[in-house]
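RECORD TYPE: protein structure
NAME: ABC transporter permease
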Amino acid sequence: MIAVTDVRRLARRRWSIVLVSLCALTLVAAAAALMIGDYPLGPGQVLAVLLGGGEPVEQYVVLQSRLPRLAMALLVGSALGVAGALLQALLRNPLASPDLLGISGGSTLAAVFCLLVLGLTGPVLAAFALVGGLAASALLLAVARGRAAGYRLILAGIGVSFFCAALVGFLMTRAQLQQTQAALVWLTGSLASTPWWQVIVLAAVWLLVLPLLLPLARRLPVLMLGEQTATGLGEHPGRVRTAGVVVAVILTAVTCAFAGPISFVALCAPAIARPLTGHGSVALAPSALVGAALLALSDLVAQYALPNVSMPVGVVTGAFGAVFLLWLLATSKGRAL
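PREDICTED:
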C-alpha cells in the first residue's frame, strides 16, 4: 500500500511541475506580446527598454503601447480564471461561470446604459459597469439564501442574465448607429487602448482580494465534500460561500468594467487547470495562470491572425471557448471535470 506521506509528496511534486510549466508558458506569451507587432523587436531590445534603456521609439512601443495591454491581459485573464474556479468549486458545477450567473450581465447593462443613454465613457463608464455587476450580485445573493442555495443561485443567475440581455437589446435598438458600433466593441470585450491607470486600479483590486483568497483556498476543498460533511468538520458553508462569491464578483465586475465582458475565459481556465492538478482540486493558482496565458495568447491571435485586421479579443476567446465546450461535451473528458 502507498503511504499517505508518499501520496502527499507526489501531489506536491505534481503541483510544483504544473505551476512551473504554467509560469513558463505565461512568460513565453508575455515575451511574444512584447516582441511581435508592426514594429518587431528582438529580446535584447525589449530587455533594454525594460531596464531603462533603448531608443525613444522602442520605449514608446514597449512602455506605452504593448506593455499596458499585456499587463491588462494578464490581470484580466488571471482574475477571470480565479473567479471561474471559485464559482465552480462553490456551486460544485463545472459549467458555472460569471456569464452564467448574471454578474457579467449586470456590468454589461450598466455600461451600455452609460454609453448609449448618458453618452459617457472613460472612468465613468468603468464605474457604471462596476456598480452594475455588484448590484446584480447583491440581488443574486439575496435570492439564493436558504436551503439549496447553490441551485437557487444558478437559477437566479440565469434569470438575471436573460433579463439583462433583453434590456441591452432594447437599448441597442433605440441607439444611433455610431453609438451602437462603440457599444458592440465594448460588448465583445477588447484590450485595445488600455491606459496605465486601468492597469494600476486592477492590480490594486487584486492586492485587496488576495488576503481573502488564501483562507478560501484552504476551506473550499472541505466545502466541496458537501454542506453536511463540511458542517460536521467545523466549517460554515454559508460564510465560505458568501466570501467566495463576493471575491468572484469583485474580480469579474472590475475586469468587465475595464475590458468588457470577455467570454469563456472564466469557464475554460478552471476546466483546463483541474485535470492538470488532479480532479477534485480547486486549482486557484493554476486557473489564474491558465487564464492569464490564455488571454495573452488570444490577444496576439486577435491582433495578428488576419492580415491588416485587428479583432477584439472577445471574438477569439468566444470562438475558442465554444469549440472547447463542444469538445468537452463530445468526449469522455467532460465527465471528469
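COMMENT: The chain has a mean pLDDT of 82.
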